[in-house]
Amino acid sequence: MKKALFSKLATSLLLTAGLFAASAPASADTTSLSFDGYGNAGFHITHIPGASFVDDFLFTVDDIPHYPSGTVVVGKTWVDGARLANYGIDSIEFFHVDTGGGYTLLPTTVTSGLLEFYPVGALGTGSYGFRVTGHTLLAEMGGAYAGTLNLAPVPEPATYLMLLIGVGLLAFTSRAKENDKLG
Fold it and tell me: Looking at the whole model, is its pTM more than 0.85?
């Protein structure tokens, strides 16, 4: 268990260093996400006033393919009695971390409003991340944004087979009980 945890930590550190060295702009902040036992990870970033930002969040898919889905909300600031959003998020893009430390962009869907984002397809085993780019909107005021990422596993064909067998057994026992009532 300790060896597996150390291996994941070492991989995350190497990936972070590789992204900084090979492909990330000098102003990028890189964070490795930690998932709970249910496939959920939270993230948050604060920025100084008047800043443009590029934030990378890294994660690993260890076994079966997963469908990641994330949401982002921006902080609001009180200015002259009004609550104003202080962040403009320009883009969110998923990427695959290549063996050389670079990355390959993946087709990503981003919805407006709450800003839900997800890659177009499932992600197989490997190292991935997503990049959030934007800027603060109000002069002389910093702010924050926060979000979550969920990794939902793609059911294997055996799971569907077990479900089909279970439903078939329920139908069979239901029919057997109906026959007993007639007899």
Answer: no
